[in-house]
Amino acid sequence: MDAHPTPAALSVNGIERLALGYFHTCAASDDGSVRCWGSNGWGEVGNGTFGSEPVPTPTLVSGIDHPLQLAAGQQFSCALLQSRRVACWGDNRNGQLGDGSTAFRTTPTTIEGLTDVVQIATGREHTCALKSDGTLWCWGSNDAGQLGDGTQAERHLPTQITSLEGVVEVALGDLHTCALVDTGAIRCFGSNSNGQLGDGTTMDRSSPTDVMWL
Hints:
Mean pLDDT: 94
Helix content: under 10%
Largest sheet: 4 strands, antiparallel
Radius of gyration: 17 Å
Number of domains: 2
Structural class: mainly beta
Distance between the termini: 50 Å
Strand order of the largest sheet: 1-2-3-4
Low-confidence stretches: 1-12
């Protein structure tokens, strides 16, 4: 048997989307289904269960059909739906599922009021959604200012970063967030203990700060 399958051989399962959390994985296949596996202590596998025992094989996630994107945080998962809305499941202790509560969910829960989303991204315990109008909305843990709303207040519902506009792409790290805007600039916020915001300092920022591009 060939120890190094060709790309064509790897495509037989029809996998179209893939997302990795800290200890779990999710994938979407071309039949529209989503399956997750791995750690499931907070319901992040999305099969209606939770517990200390891992789920070692891909398990069907109910209620998700042909997602446009998958994203996974530390112990939670999200999907961008065909309707351009967002559904999340798993750990919610910091409001990272965006449903207005801190109750964990073992199956996908759609975020009310969040529409026209074109990209989602997840950090350790926070989530952001980019809308078609170039606005960025974030929620969840905010202890280092990673939601970019000028505070360190935890948010359980999507909160617009009003000082950002023209966003074309967003990326989330452990405790920080960066946005690429239509001028070509990168603006970052959140934890900066290792200089990850690129502003020439190691100071945390709770509002978007320009990267000092050399």
